[in-house]
Amino acid sequence: MNPIIxxxxxxxxxxxxxxxxxxxxxxxxxxxxAMAAEIGGAVAIRCQGLADIAAIKGQVKVPVIGIWxxxxxGVYITPTLRHARCCAAAGADIVAIDxxxxxxxxxxxxxxxxxxxxxxxxxxxxxxxxxADAQQAVDAGTDIISTTLSGYTGEREKTDGPDFELLGxxxxxxxxxxxxxxxxxxxxxxxxxxMRRGAWAAVVGTAITHPTSITRWFAARLKG
Length: 224
Ligand SMILES: CC(=O)N[C@H](C=O)[C@@H](O)[C@H](O)[C@H](O)COP(=O)(O)O
What we know:
Blueprint: H1 3-7, E1 12-16, H2 27-40, E2 44-48, H3 50-57, E3 64-67, H4 81-90, E4 94-98, H5 110-119, E5 123-127, H6 131-139, E6 144-146, H7 164-173, E7 179-182, H8 188-196, E8 201-204, H9 206-209, H10 211-220
Bound molecules: N-acetylmannosamine-6-phosphate.
The site of N-acetylmannosamine-6-phosphate (LRY) has 16 residues, from β8 and α9.
């Protein structure tokens, strides 16, 4: 097992992302957010975009999971080999990529992408939207598989909280592969539950680092 993957076992990964046009969207700001999360106990930081990866890598000691989003539908999380290589070059210790079975913009298969990244020495995390995606990722020898895209690709219902069912299926089927639970973990209890169900680690984004969403959750309680 790679020592970086070993290092995050049992821990909380915090995703620090601001979306296009948002007030906090600045690499310096995301680096500050990442430092704050590290002080709070994050075992790794997940972040988006080459500038954010570089800024955060320069400020935190914990491993950085890098992605590069291009657009917001279809294959948009680190969609091509080029995007993934750039994330690694920017300093990501682990690169997360779209692991769906949809056609990739550069025409490579998922397996070809992973193979090329492994030749470069990159640790690859598969952002899956279904069990079939996870199977493909494991068949390709991916280092880490994750529930990240569950509820976002049309293959699975978007659950209110984390997709416990998919997590369970992945943990049961692939006992030798680290399975991360990511997506809609909104409370410490949900975090504890995904770990109890066998997640290697869990990624929390919105509930920790997206104040506009958190404010909306509170504000919504004031309306009818
Ligand atoms: C589907 C998609 O694009 N997910 C993205 C992946 O990086 C992020 O927008 C999420 O914030 C992240 O996965 C963490 O999940 P949550 O914010 O629900 O804790």
